[in-house]
Each structure stands twice: as structure tokens, then as C-alpha cells.
Design brief:
The chain has 118 residues and is an all-beta fold. The protein has strands at residues 2-6, 9-12, 17-24, 27-38, 45-50, 56-58, 66-71, 76-81, 90-100, 104-108, 112-117. It starts with a strand and ends with a strand.
């Protein structure tokens, strides 16, 4: 079972970017999925989470600008980032609470770099 994040890149302030996080392998169920980010010299922080039922939560700093979504049948989650700011620059990580034969718990994907230029 693997979790793969993608979609990072360089964008100008005010621009948009869309990140994807896909789980692969033999998976029975994925509970809550989440996006986190870590800027240089800072601790990793929560960006957004989404439950299997579609309930979402956001960090105050991204409310109204970022939207998290998922399609359970595809074991995939997205993060739509709009009105981006330089302070959104960070390595973005996804995680998922997975139920499978080989994984029972939180799995992290590799990070994807997001850079917002001013």
C-alpha cells in the first residue's frame, strides 16, 4: 500500500494550484485523509482534513482559499489552492488512515514542494 502526492510547483501570488494524493494497493477502507505542510524552519502543520463521509476541516490560515475533496471509490484526495500567498510556500504532505491487510493506521505520502512567489 502506498500514498502518492503530486501537483506541487511554482506559482505567483494570487494564483492557483491543485494537489493530488492517491492511495494504491489492496485497501479495504480509508477513513480520514489530510493535508499537512512544513515550511523551512517550522513545524509541520495541519492544512485540511476530510472524513470518509465528506466532513471537512481547515486551518484558519487557509479557510476560504483552499478546498479539500475526495472520491472514495478512487482512493484519491485533492487540495485546490486559490488566492495563494507567499506564506503558503512549504512542502505539502498527505496522510490517510488506512484499513488494509498490510496497513492498519496512518500512512504518509512523500512531500510535494509548493512555492509561491511574490
Amino acid at each position: 500500500v502506498q500514498l502518492q502526492a503530486s501537483g506541487g510547483g511554482l506559482v505567483q501570488a494570487g494564483g492557483s494550484l491543485r494537489l493530488s494524493c492517491a492511495a494504491s494497493g489492496s485497501i479495504y477502507r480509508i477513513n480520514t485523509m489530510g493535508w499537512y505542510r512544513q515550511a523551512p524552519g517550522k513545524e509541520r502543520e495541519l492544512v485540511a482534513t476530510i472524513t470518509n463521509g465528506g466532513h471537512t476541516d481547515y486551518a484558519d490560515s487557509v479557510k476560504g482559499r483552499f478546498t479539500v475533496s475526495r472520491v472514495n471509490a478512487r482512493n484519491t484526495m485533492w487540495l485546490e489552492m486559490n488566492s495563494m500567498k507567499p506564506e503558503d510556500t512549504a512542502v505539502y504532505y498527505c496522510n490517510a488512515d488506512i484499513r488494509s491487510r498490510v496497513v492498519m493506521g496512518i500512512l504518509w505520502g512523500q512531500g510535494t514542494q509548493v512555492t509561491v512567489s511574490s
